[in-house]
Amino acid sequence: APTVTGLPDLTVPFNGSSAPQTVTLTGTGPLTVTGTSSNPGVATVEVTGSGNTRTVVVRANPALTTGGTAAISLTVTDAQGRSSVETFTVTVAAARTRLFAAGAGPGSSPV
């Protein structure tokens, strides 16, 4: 069966994306790779490239207002229809908030 390797667990900044992650595929014939998120409300995944090396980028959902986690699964399938799945965890950091003293307005220093 084909394999995919090189997937670390990731932390993605609030309203941001991961650095491109390179994954290596093994298998015979043309290989296809699909990426899915267990929680698209937290993060989505994009897989690009061809051959035995692909690039994976994980993006935080811009509508997310708190942090969260999602399992990202990559499925690689070979020309014979055999497949395998590799899963890693993505943590999206919560939005940072700044506290201001009561009555403070723009230009005030955070507490």
What number is the mean pLDDT? Answer: 88
Proportion of residues in helical segments: under 10%
Count of DSSP helices? 0
Strand order of the largest sheet: 1-3-6-5
Low-confidence stretches: none
Q: Could you say which overall geometry the principal axes of the C-alpha atoms support?
A: elongated
Structural class: mainly beta
Encode the helix/strand succession as letters: EEEEEEEE
End-to-end span in angstroms?
57 Å
Query: How large a portion of the residues is in β-strands, by DSSP E?
Result: over 45%
Beta strands, count: 8
Largest sheet: 4 strands, antiparallel
Cα-atom radius of gyration: 19 Å
Report what the structure shows.
The protein is mainly β and 111 residues long. Helices cover 0% and strands 49% of the residues. The protein contains no helices and 8 strands. The strands form 2 sheets. A 4-stranded antiparallel beta sheet has the order 1-3-6-5, with no helix packed on it. It has a 4-stranded mixed beta sheet with strand order 2-8-7-4, with no helix packed on it.
Secondary-structure blueprint of this entry?
Elements (H helix, E strand, L loop, with lengths): L2 E3 L4 E3 L8 E6 L5 E6 L5 E8 L2 E8 L7 E10 L5 E10 L19
Parallel strand pairs: 2-8
Antiparallel strand pairs: 1-3, 3-6, 4-7, 5-6, 7-8
List the keywords.
single chain, 111 residues, mainly beta, four-stranded antiparallel β-sheet, four-stranded mixed β-sheet, 8 strands, 0% helix
